[in-house]
Design a protein that fits this description.
Blueprint lengths: L1 H12 L1 H22 L2 H30 L4 H19 L3 H32 L8 E6 L2 E6 L8 E4 L9 E5 L2 E4 L1 H4 L5 E3 L4 E2 L4 E2 L4 E5 L7 H14 L3 H26 L1 H4 L4 H14 L3 H4 L3 H13 L2 E3 L2 H7 L4 E5 H5 L5 E7 L5 H12 L5 H9 L9 E6 L3 E6 L2 E6 L1 H4 L8 H12 L3 E7 L5 E9 L6 H10 L4 E5 L4 H11 L3 E3 L4 H15 L2 E5 L5 H6 L2 E5 L5 H6 L2 E3 L6 H36 L4 H19 L5
Parallel strand pairs: 11-18, 11-20, 18-19, 20-21, 21-22
Antiparallel strand pairs: 1-2, 1-3, 3-9, 4-7, 4-9, 5-6, 5-8, 10-22, 12-17, 13-14, 14-15, 15-16, 16-17
Helix pairs in contact: 2-3, 2-5, 3-4, 3-5, 4-5, 4-10, 5-12, 5-25, 7-12, 8-10, 10-24, 10-25, 12-13, 12-24, 12-25, 13-24, 15-16, 18-20, 24-25
Amino acid sequence: MLYPQRFTQFTREHADTVAALLCGLLLFLGWFALHLGALGLAFLLLPAAYVIGGYESAREGLTTLFKEKELDVDLLMIVAAIGAASLGLWRREYHLIIDGAILILIFAISGALEGYAMQRTERSIRSLMSLTPDTARLLHQGREEEIPITQLKVGDEIVVKPGELIPTDGIILSGYSTLNQAAITGESLPVEKTVGAEVFAGTLNGYGGLQIKVHKPAQSSLIVRVIRLVEQAKTEAPPSQEFIDRFEKGYAKVIVVVGILLATLPPFLWGWDWETTIYRALTFLVVASPCALMAAIMPTLLSGIANGARQGILFKNGAQLEKIGKVRAIAFDKTGTLTTGQVQVFQVISVSKYTQIDVLQTAASVESYSEHPIGKAIVQAAGNLDWVGAVQVQAIPGQGIVGIAQEQQVIVGNAVFVQQYVTNLPDELREIAQSLEQEGKTVVWVAQGNKEAEVMGIIAIADEVRVETAATITRLKKLGIEQIVMLTGDNEETAYSIAKAVGIDRVYAQLLPEDKLNVIRRLQQQYQTVAMVGDGINDAPALAQASVGIAMGISGSDVALETADIVLMADRLEKIAVAMHLGRRSQSIVKQNIFVALGFIMLLLVGDFLGNINLPIGVIGHEGSTVLVTLSGLRLLK
């Protein structure tokens, strides 16, 4: 029973190839029967070759015709083949039946080759789906229980042994190991992780056992989002492909009209015989069909998407791969993008009435509700202190946060924001804050009070510039990016200090989310195609407005990840240059493919009108160009 099952599976997986092989065999036997003069046998074998080789194309063509009321290339090929066979029967020149069968055979072989070519891209994309195991070891009352990952809940604790795949995103509770994250983030070297570190589904555990706490639903894990977005990218046609699709529908109608005219007018205008006229009209239907043009774009873009996914760059659709290659200006958020975002409290300075502990406790009471890296740094610094969470907390993106703690209103934020609630800022703190900001530190002011709030002190936050930032900016300038700017809600001194260190000349500081949006709009008026790189909730409007929004995959907020068009899975800025190179290379290959496709069509049309090609040669040229263009698009898989 094993062999029949394998045969059935093989024929199902390679149906196009099996059909082409059977068509070829029947065609050969039919030709041999004609050669021997066995017309009855030939007339049995050759129609079978037509049916087996052309069934799928006829089915697709008729479905398009009746359901969408549109003509497509598949139907034109079948019409040309049947026309050649009919002409052969009418004139009793049976070699024309062979010509039609050869057309069907080559079309079937071409379809099989295109299918295999596209499967390479499909396999590259589907390999993402094999990165997560189906089950996880749940730790329950000290015992391990293997359950499907779909049953995992937030708060569950799981065990991952050495050499196993991480089943879902989580936080390490105990253990130390190195994790291979190449499949998710594109990082070539294993990363060391221990207690408190986040791990991602689909990464490979090294030599150490880990106990992990599930902190988000399994269906929300990074790898599941990647798979969902890549699958979505496969089904969304970019504007260029949509244009080609619209062009093909109109072009097919033109081919039919011109084909009918070519099949009827030449005998009256130039005295051609009907056999020559109809034969050239049928050849015209074949060589003028835009198969190669239809295959010029999507294989290339899908290959680029698969290539990017392997390198930790997630393109949400082919349109963004097209656009990233045309970017002329790029804007960067500062915190969490140009910098690591892993900020720490550098210094706490209080006014004489309060202590440093008072300032930290008060700030932590409201910042514990904030998702901003600065808020997390303050809460971490106040971790061992005794503080109570505030109520009625309201965050104002890019400015600060307010709330009620111990019946007192607490205000934490930048100087401009805090000044809305206090009468004045102490002069001595102003001078200290200015000095710290000139050193590149971010200064957070802390105030409290109901009717008239008073300043308690300031907290200086230090944020490290990413190691690769300066090199990335230099690389982008070499790629010809005309304008690189920094957008930040931080103060000008801090912003200019970091901009100078990384090589950015133009800085927009103290921006609200809507201000970032307006800057992007102004850049688009000047440079048309503009990219925005960010990671936070306050970057979301600018990411949405930008021609290409690029989000940091690890440090980025959920809103930023959903809004962006491209996600850098490992938060590595140098991948932006890689993405731009992919985009530009994809555009170059698409242009080459279109040139080759149109060139072949023109050459074949000229050959047909001059009478220098027959139907089989026309089919070989037509289908050969289609396969060539498809294989050319797959170059981006490398």
